[in-house]
Design a protein that fits this description.
alpha+beta, six-stranded mixed sheet, three-stranded antiparallel sheet, elongated
Length: 158
């Protein structure tokens, strides 16, 4: 890897792998271990590239086995309600449990990053299927949970 300099103090940086990062939003909890970052001798940390956060999230969301529950379908014009995508039955107002899965996210030119994601789930009373939040809610919650995990490591944006 080419040596780069710290944007804050111009010291040389080294690639390191961060320990456990955690973030949460809307009942979605994420744990990320082994995230690559550039670090300088003065303790400044940043992402390997400005595009890295978005690339990481996209790669992570496309990883097989991260989210296994089907997303709920929202119905209603003014008051949206979650419905089972299988049988169409309205789901309870509150989720009752969480579904947690662990995957290795393979990033180009880096070691795999371990990700554990827990998302709230409903249990459909009509067909007993495990259903998660609507797709837009899951995507928004995951992105914010990842951003909160990044923030916990004091990595500035860009």
């Amino acid at each position: 890897m080419t040596t780069t300099v710290c944007r804050q103090c111009n010291a040389d940086t080294e690639l390191k792998h961060l320990g456990r990062l955690e973030g949460e939003d809307s009942g979605i909890h994420i744990v990320i271990e082994g995230l690559p970052a550039l670090d300088c001798v003065n303790g400044h940390t940043r992402f390997p590239t400005p595009e890295f956060p978005l690339q990481f999230i996209e790669t992570m969301m496309n990883a097989d086995g991260l989210i296994t529950a089907e997303p709920a379908v929202e119905k209603g014009l003014f008051r949206k309600r979650a419905h089972c995508p299988g049988c169409g039955k309205e789901l309870p107002a509150e989720t009752g449990d969480t579904s947690s899965h662990h995957v290795q996210v393979n990033l180009p030119d880096n070691d795999p990053v371990a990700v554990e994601l827990a998302v709230p789930v409903y249990r459909c009373t009509g067909c007993n299927q495990e259903i998660t939040l609507p797709k837009t809610g899951v995507e928004r919650g995951v992105m914010q949970a990842v951003a909160n995990a990044f923030r916990s490591a004091n990595i500035p944006p860009g």
